């Protein structure tokens, strides 16, 4: 997730205070990992330094004075370019799961046991996502679906790898 670009996108809707940006970010993008206030303000500082946002005059509010940030034409252009670019197609061909299986085989450890443990971990996480889908908002449900689909792909890979573990072990020993 690109925090600077997400904040720019939120600012393109309307000028906002840092507190409002954090709230909106956490609502739409921060499930399970809210954005720290310090990161909001340091990111806004860098965006202002780079000419992508402007900070208005300090305004009194509940607590310390607050600044309202607004996106500049340069910031708007960056959001336009970013939204037009496709996200890199995942997954990558090198994963931690695969690395652990191969190393377990190389080291004479229990690769099948590792795959069983990983399957159980994935299934537990899928149950958590199912609960989120039942009780969360639409954005929570859509993010949970995204996570579940990735976990389902991993589970299929785990099954295929377990079925081919003997052949993989023989190949690893030959190297």
TrEMBL record:
InterPro entries: Tscrpt_reg_PadR_N, WH-like_DNA-bd_sf, WH_DNA-bd_sf. Pfam families: PadR. Residues 7-80 form the Transcription regulator PadR N-terminal domain. It comes from the Bacteria. This is PadR family transcriptional regulator.
């Amino acid at each position: 997730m690109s925090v600077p670009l997400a904040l720019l996108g939120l600012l393109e809707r309307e000028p906002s205070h840092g507190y409002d940006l954090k709230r909106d970010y956490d609502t739409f993008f921060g499930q399970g990992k809210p954005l720290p206030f310090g990161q909001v303000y340091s990111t806004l500082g860098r965006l202002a330094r780079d000419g992508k946002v402007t900070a208005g005059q300090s305004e009194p509010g509940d607590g310390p004075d607050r600044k309202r940030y607004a996106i500049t034409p340069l910031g708007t252009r960056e959001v336009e370019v970013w939204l037009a670019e496709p996200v890199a197609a995942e997954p990558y061909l090198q994963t931690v799961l695969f690395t652990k299986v191969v190393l377990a085989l190389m080291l004479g450890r229990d690769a099948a046991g590792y795959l069983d443990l990983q399957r159980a971990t994935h299934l537990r996480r899928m149950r958590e996502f199912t609960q989120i889908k039942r009780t969360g908002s639409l954005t929570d449900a859509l993010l949970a679906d995204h996570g579940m689909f990735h976990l389902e792909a991993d589970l299929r890979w785990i099954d295929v790898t377990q079925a081919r573990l003997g052949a993989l072990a023989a190949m690893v020993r030959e190297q």
